[in-house]
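Regression test case RT-17, inverse folding.

Input:
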C-alpha cells in the first residue's frame, strides 16, 4: 500500500471523493509561526486542527514546527509522510477523516537542540505552545514551585545551550530573542494544569531569575502566558486504529490520531504578538479562562480519575465499560453534583455534567483506564484535592472524594480485584507503592497517614484534617473488606 505523503495526497482526495478532507493550500508557502513542544496525540487532534482551519481559510503565517522533547518515534513516523497525518473522529456510529497539513517539520530535541532553538528564535515564530504532560513542567504539584533539583532543570541551568526541559528551551530562546532585538513569543500552555499559563509564567520566571535577572524582568514586562482550557478526549493510537485509517485512506499513515467529535478551547486573549484567528475555528477567546478550566479539571478530569482507579480495581479496561456499571455512574454523578460543583462558577454546570456522561459512553474511542491512571501524583492535586480543600472550607461534603482517594490507595497496591497485576506508571511510583502497602491491611490508618505525608501531592494541610482523613480510612477499610462495588453503594446511599 502507498504511504500518505504530499505526492499521494492528491490521488487520495480524488479516490475518496470528498469523504476525506485534505489540505488544498500550498504547504510550501506556510511560514513557521508556531513552535509546539510535545508532539503527542493531543496536540495533533486539538490545537493543530484549529490551526488547520485557519490555514485553509488563507492565513499561511501559522505553520507548526513540532518538537518532541523526549523520543524520536513521532518524528520518525511522520517525516517520511511529509508530516501529514490523519485525524479520525469517531462518534460511535461513523468515522470522519481529515488529513492535517499544518505540521511543517517535526524535530527531536535531544538530537538537535540547536535546530529547536533556531525555530524558536525565528522572527516568524510568534507562539510557542506546549502539551508536555503535567510532569514536563518539573514543578512540585502541591505548591506549584519549580523543582530546582529536577535533573532536567539542574542540567539546563548548567548547560543552557543544549536544554532538556521545556522551561530550559523557553528561557534560552527568549534570551536569544532579547539579545537579537526580537519581541518575545507568546507561551501557550495547553496542558491540564490549574491556571496553566500563570503556572508556566511563574516557572519560567523562577528559572530565568537564576540565569539573568534583567532577562527575567524583560519576560515579566513583555512576555505573555495566557491561560487556556483545552478539552478533547484523545486516546493513544493503537495498531487497530492504524489499520482502520489505512483501510479508509487507501494509504498507510504510520501515526494517525483518533478522537471524539467534541472539542473545546478557551483561551485568554492576551498575546505578545499576532495570533491565528482560532475563534473562526470555534475557539472561545475570553478575559479569564479560569472558571472554565477549573470546571473542566475538577469535573471531566476528576471524574476520569475516579473512573480510572475504581474501574481498574473492579477489572474494567475502558471508560465506556466503567461508566456502564450503574454503581459507577451513580457514584461519579453524585460526586460531581454534591462535592465538585458547589465550588465552581462556570455557567450551566448541570448540562455540562450531562454532556460529560454522553462523551464517556462513546465506546468507539476505546479509551483505556490505564492511560488516565498514569501520573496520579501529578494529576490528583488539581483534579480532586482542590475540591476537597474548597469543601472543607465551605462545609460541603467530601465523602465521595475521600472514597475516590481510598480507591487510589488500593489501586497503588498494583493488583485488581480479579487478581490481575498492572504497572503503576507515575514518577513517584515506588514511593507511592511503598506508602500504600508498607503496612498490614489491618491498619488502614497507617497507610492513609503514609500516603498523606507525601507533601508534593498533599501539601501540609490535608493530613491535619482529622475528620477528612478519618473518612479516607473508613472507606479504605470498606473497600478492602467488601470490594469496590459494595463499598461504593454504601457510600452513595
Ligand atoms: P502523548 O503521550 O501522546 O504525548 C505526550 C507528549 O509529552 C510527548 O510528546 C512526550 O514526549 C511529551 N513528554 C512526556 N513526558 C515529558 C517530560 N517529562 N518532559 C517533556 N515532555 C514530555 O500524550 P497526549 O495525549 O498528547 O497528552 C499530552 C498532554 O496533553 C496531557 O498530559 C494533558 O496535559 C494534555 N491533554 C491531553 C488530552 C487527551 O485527551 N489526550 C486532552 C486535554 C489535554
Ligand atoms: C485524561 C485527559 O489522560 C487523562 O488523564 O483525563 O487526558 C482527558 O482525556 C482530557 O483532559 C479530555 O479533555
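Golden output:
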Amino acid at each position: 500500500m502507498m504511504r500518505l505523503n504530499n505526492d499521494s495526497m492528491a490521488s487520495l482526495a480524488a479516490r475518496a471523493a470528498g469523504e476525506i478532507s485534505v489540505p488544498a493550500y500550498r504547504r510550501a508557502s506556510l511560514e513557521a509561526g508556531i513552535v509546539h513542544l510535545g508532539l503527542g496525540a493531543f496536540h495533533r487532534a486539538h490545537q493543530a486542527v484549529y490551526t488547520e482551519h485557519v490555514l485553509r481559510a488563507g492565513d499561511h503565517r501559522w505553520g507548526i514546527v513540532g518538537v518532541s522533547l523526549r523520543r524520536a518515534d513521532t518524528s520518525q513516523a511522520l517525516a517520511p509522510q511529509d508530516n501529514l497525518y490523519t485525524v479520525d473522529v469517531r462518534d460511535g456510529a461513523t468515522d470522519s477523516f481529515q488529513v492535517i497539513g499544518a505540521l511543517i517539520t517535526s524535530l527531536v530535541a535531544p538530537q538537535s537542540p540547536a535546530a529547536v532553538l533556531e525555530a524558536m528564535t525565528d522572527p516568524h515564530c510568534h507562539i510557542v505552545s506546549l502539551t508536555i504532560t503535567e510532569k514536563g513542567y518539573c514543578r512540585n504539584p502541591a505548591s506549584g514551585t519549580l523543582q530546582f533539583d529536577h535533573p532536567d532543570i539542574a542540567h539546563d541551568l548548567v548547560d543552557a545551550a543544549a536544554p532538556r526541559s521545556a522551561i530550559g528551551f523557553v528561557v534560552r530562546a527568549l534570551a536569544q530573542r532579547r539579545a537579537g532585538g526580537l519581541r518575545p513569543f507568546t507561551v501557550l500552555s495547553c496542558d491540564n494544569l490549574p491556571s496553566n499559563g500563570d503556572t508556566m509564567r511563574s516557572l519560567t520566571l523562577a528559572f530565568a531569575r537564576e540565569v539573568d535577572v534583567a532577562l527575567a524582568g524583560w519576560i515579566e514586562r513583555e512576555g505573555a502566558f495566557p491561560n487556556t482550557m483545552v478539552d478533547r478526549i484523545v486516546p493513544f493510537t493503537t495498531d487497530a486504529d492504524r489499520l482502520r485509517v489505512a483501510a479508509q485512506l487507501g494509504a498507510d499513515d504510520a501515526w494517525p490520531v483518533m478522537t471524539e467529535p467534541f472539542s473545546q478551547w478557551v483561551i485568554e486573549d492576551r498575546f505578545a504578538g499576532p495570533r491565528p484567528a482560532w475563534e473562526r475555528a470555534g475557539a472561545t477567546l475570553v478575559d479569564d479562562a479560569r472558571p472554565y478550566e477549573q470546571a473542566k479539571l475538577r469535573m471531566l478530569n476528576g471524574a476520569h480519575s475516579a473512573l480510572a482507579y475504581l474501574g481498574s480495581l473492579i477489572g474494567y479496561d475502558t471508560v465506556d465499560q466503567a461508566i456502564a456499571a450503574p454503581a459507577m455512574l451513580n457514584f461519579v454523578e453524585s460526586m460531581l453534583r454534591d462535592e465538585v460543583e458547589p465550588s465552581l462558577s462556570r455557567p450551566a454546570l448541570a448540562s455540562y455534567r450531562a454532556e460529560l456522561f454522553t462523551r464517556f459512553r462513546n465506546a468507539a474511542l476505546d479509551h483505556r483506564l490505564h492511560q488516565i491512571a498514569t501520573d496520579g501524583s501529578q494529576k490528583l492535586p488539581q483534579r480532586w484535592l482542590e475540591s476537597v480543600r474548597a469543601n472543607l472550607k465551605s462545609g460541603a461534603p467530601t465523602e465521595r472524594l475521600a472514597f475516590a482517594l481510598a480507591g487510589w490507595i488500593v489501586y497503588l497496591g498494583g493488583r485488581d480485584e480479579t487478581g490481575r497485576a498492572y504497572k503503576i506508571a507515575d514518577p513517584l511510583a515506588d514511593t507511592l507503592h511503598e506508602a500504600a502497602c508498607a503496612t498490614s491491611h489491618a491498619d488502614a490508618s497507617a497507610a492513609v497517614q503514609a500516603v498523606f505525608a507525601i507533601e508534593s501531592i498533599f501539601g501540609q494541610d490535608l493530613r491535619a484534617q482529622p475528620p477528612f482523613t478519618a473518612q479516607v480510612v473508613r472507606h479504605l477499610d470498606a473497600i478492602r473488606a467488601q470490594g469496590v462495588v459494595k463499598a461504593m453503594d454504601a457510600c452513595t446511599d
